[in-house]
Each structure stands twice: as C-alpha cells, then as structure tokens.
C-alpha cells in the first residue's frame, strides 16, 4: 500500500492548511453581560470579514465598548440593538430564549450560556422557537431537526443577512479555491484512483481502478485506511432465495 504524504501533512495541523488570519477582525459574538443588566448599542458600521458570508455589525454600547455581532436582515448604520430582559421582540435585539415566544424566528443562538452564539450563525440562516418546557426551550434548527437548550441562553431575533451568497456560480476553479482557502478547507479533492501510486493506495496502473479490494481493516494505519472502512459488504444488496 502506498503512502499519502499530502493527507498526512494536513492531519498534522500545520499553518499551511489552516484558515488564514488575514482579513479577520474580531470574534463575532455577543459581549458578556449579566442577564439582569439592560444595555443598548448603536450600529456604527457594517463590515465584511474574510471567510464569512454574513456581514458583521460594529456595535458601540453606552459604556463605550465595541463588539462585532452578525447582522440580521434590515440592519443599517444607526440601528439600535438592545440586550437584556426588557428588550422587545424586534429584529436585532438579543434576549434570553426563555423570554422569546413560541414561533419567533431567531438566529445566532448560544449553545452554552456565555459562548456568544454558535447555532444558526451562517448567512441567511435562522431557527424557530418551538416550545418551552421544564427541561429547557426546544428550537427547530435550519436542518429541520429539534434540540433543547438551556432557557437562559441568549438569541438574536430575526434572520441573518447575507443569504443567497452561495447561489452565485464560481465560474472558474480559481475562485472556488480562494473561497475554500479562506475557510481552511481542502480543494480540490482528487480521486484516489487518479493519483500516483506513491501518493495514494488506489493510485497507479494503466487504468483508473483500485487494483484490489476496496475494504480495509478498521485497525489499518492512517496511510492505508482508505476506501470502505471495515465494510461488511459492498455493492448492491441482493436478497437470497429462502426455501
């Protein structure tokens, strides 16, 4: 079996394959405020961060602090964002999810209180508050699945801006490579049978075929662990005749 130098290098976690820091502004999350406190911020600018589709709101609060928060649809320079229990149900306001009525569209939801928002944070995404219970608040995720989170976790009312950015075609491979590069993702992904024998176990030969079994042991080393891992069977399922 051949070795896979490129894949092994990526697995090492070097800076060459990480998302670049160029063009990054600041962590896009809520500032840490106590639940009993009420704060009001003003959007002083709408900015773009490299590798992020959703625009960021540069918010200045009454105490002089500045934070970068993902912007919802309808946000503009001069808009007001309220944090706290007394904030109304209006687009852009950040409230504990226990105080948000059922059926409300929310985004940038905290998975754990104080993490600044980590659920429904991509451009154009949103979740729906489904029900309130004794064990927490159930929300419907953009994928359609349901999850229950702590009632104290904060969420932003509205739908994140920037939706539809992925609908535009790349037109050439260079644009797609640059986009994946900004996110630290691997592109292009080359088939193993199209590679050389010393690069991939499926490579080499006069024709593009594996040249052997496509199943490997679960205990195979990383350089050989390709194909169907510990597969019990491959191909189409065939029903045997039973007597």
Lay out the secondary structure.
Blueprint: H1 5-12, E1 39-47, E2 56-61, E3 66-70, E4 80-83, E5 94-96, E6 105-107, E7 127-133, E8 136-140, E9 146-149, E10 154-157, H2 173-182, E11 215-216, E12 228-229
Short description:
By secondary structure, the protein is mainly β. It is built from two helices and twelve strands, in the order H-E-E-E-E-E-E-E-E-E-E-H-E-E.
Describe the structure.
- The structure is a single chain.
- With 243 residues, the chain is mainly beta.
- The protein has 2 domains: 51 residues, Ribosomal protein L2, domain 3 (Irregular), CATH 4.10.950.10; 127 residues, SH3 type barrels (Roll), CATH 2.30.30.30.
- It is 7% helix and 22% strand.
- The protein contains 2 helices and 12 strands.
- It has a 6-stranded antiparallel β-sheet, with no helix packed on it. Strands 3-2-1-4 form a 4-stranded antiparallel β-sheet, with no helix packed on it.
- Strand 1 and strand 2 form a beta hairpin.
- The two termini are 43 Å apart.
Identify the overall geometry: elongated
User: Percent range for helical residues?
Assistant: under 10%
* Beta strands, count: 12
CATH topology of the largest domain: SH3 type barrels
SSE topology string: HEEEEEEEEEEHEE
SSE class: mainly beta
Count of DSSP-assigned helices: 2
CATH architectural category of the largest domain: Roll
Low-pLDDT windows of residues: none
Quaternary structure classification:
single chain
Amount of beta strand: 15-25%
């Amino acid at each position: 079996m051949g070795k896979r130098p490129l894949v092994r290098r990526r697995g090492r976690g070097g800076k060459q394959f990480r998302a670049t820091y160029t063009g990054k502004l600041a962590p896009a999350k809520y500032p840490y405020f106590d639940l009993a406190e009420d704060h009001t911020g003003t959007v002083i600018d709408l900015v773009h961060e490299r590798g992020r589709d959703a625009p960021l709101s540069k918010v200045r609060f009454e105490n002089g602090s500045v934070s970068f928060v993902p912007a919802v649809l309808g946000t503009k320079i001069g808009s007001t964002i309220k944090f706290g229990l007394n904030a109304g149900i209006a687009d852009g306001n950040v409230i504990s999810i226990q105080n948000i009525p059922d059926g409300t569209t929310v985004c940038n939801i905290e998975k754990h209180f104080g993490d600044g928002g980590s659920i429904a944070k991509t451009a154009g995404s949103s979740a729906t508050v489904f029900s309130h219970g004794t064990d927490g608040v159930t929300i419907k995720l953009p994928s359609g699945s349901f999850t229950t989170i702590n009632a104290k976790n904060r969420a932003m009312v509205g739908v994140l801006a920037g939706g539809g950015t992925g609908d535009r075609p790349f037109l050439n491979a260079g644009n797609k490579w640059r986009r994946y590069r900004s996110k630290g993702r691997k592109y292009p992904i080359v088939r193993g049978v199209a590679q050389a024998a010393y690069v991939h176990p499926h490579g080499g030969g006069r024709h593009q075929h594996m040249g052997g079994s496509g199943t490997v042991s679960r205990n195979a080393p990383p350089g050989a662990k390709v194909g169907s891992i510990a597969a019990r069977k491959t191909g189409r399922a065939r029903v045997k005749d039973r007597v």
